[in-house]
TrEMBL record, chain A:
The protein's name in its UniProt record: ATP-binding cassette domain-containing protein
Localization, UniProt: Cell membrane
SUPFAM superfamilies linked: P-loop containing nucleoside triphosphate hydrolases (SSF52540)
Organism classification: Bacteria, Bacillati, Actinomycetota, Actinomycetes, Kitasatosporales
Residue ranges annotated for the ABC transporter domain, each copy included: 6-239
Chief subcellular location: membrane
Entry membrane topology: Peripheral membrane protein
Keyword Acetylation: no
Keywords in alphabetical order: Antibiotic resistance, ATP-binding, Cell membrane, Membrane, Nucleotide-binding, Translocase, Transport
Superkingdom classification of source: Bacteria
TrEMBL record, chain B:
Family indicated by similarity: Belongs to the ABC-2 integral membrane protein family.
Domain ABC transmembrane type-2: 31-257
The protein's name: Transport permease protein
Source species: Streptomyces carpinensis
Record membrane topology: Multi-pass membrane protein
Location in or out of the cell: Cell membrane; Membrane
Higher taxonomy: Bacteria, Bacillati, Actinomycetota, Actinomycetes, Kitasatosporales
Keywords: Antibiotic resistance, Cell membrane, Membrane, Transmembrane, Transmembrane helix, Transport
Chief localization: membrane
Highest taxon of the lineage: Bacteria
Positions of transmembrane segments: 31-52, 64-85, 106-132, 144-167, 232-251
Amino acid sequence: MAEAAITVEGARKKYGGKGGAHALDGLDLRVGRGTVHGVLGPNGAGKTTLVRILSTLLRPDAGRIEVAGHDVVTQAYAVRLRIGLLGQHAALDEELGGRENLELFGRLHHLGARTARARAGELLERFDLAGTGRRPVRAYSGGMRRRLDLAASLITEPEVLFLDEPTTGLDPRGRSEVWAAVRSLVGGGTTVLLATQHLEEADQLADRISVVDAGRVIADGTADELKAATGADRIDVVLRDAGQLGAAVALLPMTAVSVDPDRRLLSAPVADRMAALSGVVQALQEAGIEAEDVALRRPTLDEVFLHLTGEDHRVKESA
Amino acid sequence: MSIGASTGAYALTDSWTMTRRELARWARQPAQVAVGLVFPVMLLLMFGYLVGGGRGVSGDYIDYLVPGMLALTMAFGLEGTMLAVTRDLDKGVIDRFRSMPMADGAVLVGRSAADMLQSTLVLAVLAGAGYALGWRAHGGPGGFLGAVGLLLLFRFAMLWIGIHLALLAGRPELIQAVQILVWPVGFLSNAFAAPRSMPDWLGTAVEWNPMSQTATAVRDLLGGPGGESGHVGAAVLWPLVLLAVFLPSALRRFARLSR
């Protein structure tokens, strides 16, 4: 693996004294320089705590944590010189315009007035915000706000960029805008750590993914490796008549079919997507069983977790 | 958090940048700034003419009322400070500042500088309005400067209480509670009426209110009715006591954001 931009060994963090739960419980992570690394997990898995520790906002209770070659606790200033942070909420001054915000953050990075101004103009151009003029951020759309937020975190071309749920609360258009912006960074040598609870987002952007649960990494690999390990894609079949579910299960050319009578739904993991699709459609037609919907889909995060943890508590919770 | 000497060099620049940010916000919201300046004047007009009277006050009421209003306005500044700090905390702006290589404390120093500047402006506008209504300072330039100094010192204490409360609460919902509480504390003072006109227990409480000490000392320095000599010491001491408690504890709270 390439030289590490982020090294986390045995990170521990507990909130609220004695009774508190561990937000991080011996988490290990290594992110190669110039890569995009996804940290995937449900709410409360410890993703935000990890990002806050890596960006020097929070002190860990224990562990060795280095970002861009510097210790986040003892060399916080050196780390701050080299990072950009995109938190869960757009951290901008709502009353000021885009340019004013960027110049403010540029001056706080000690770029000097002229450089800060030039850099602000450059970033506004790059993130397609040059036309916003003096309009206050308050009047921006969600996607624009997030793009400006991203621009603000790139004010000094950071070595390491942290993205914490970068597309939460955005509509599909806003999401694809942010994804495109993140993709444009890759190749520039910036290391990106992306914390997300959306499998699709990690799949779209990350070179490698660490799956986090209860403050530890429970699986690690490329998106393909993880998907292969978790039973790959699934096929969902919704029948018109719930009474035919039993008959349909017997007909389907696959094993491990799960049945949800309330939704008249059959679901099964598939290896070869196209063969499975045509096989199912054909089998149902021949038996004269009417289907309302037949669809291929990626495993959900629930299913990934179900597989990785071998527990079904999450499925029950979300059901 | 020990970040090393590297941030010290930027302490002034960063604080100034943070102050300028606030000035830029003012330029963007002239109406809001105007309301902040006019509101105390409206209170002055209301108590001067509408409610009027000034129970237990001998002499010209306007000379009693204006110093009281000046002190009250400084007390109400607490709300503005708390609101601004809470807003930045809530929006995650303070997190972004903390993840940047800025000087320690520049966030709070910038806040203080901007709020003190705004309060000086408020004092000037309110004093001007008082002048138009017939209020005159009789204490000479020394007394005038002393009075301004005492008022700003009191405001500075209120400022750090505001920062402390914002860091303590951390949520915008709690601002309302403080906004409501500031009123009785502000009005349980000698701003509008002399304590001797009140029931004994209330009068005593009112006399102990630090704001009353500042108002009485200002009246003394400006030669208005209700001024009693010997209160300047208390008007210096009280804010210093409040600062001794709330300034370090606000700084501690700010450092504890990383816990």
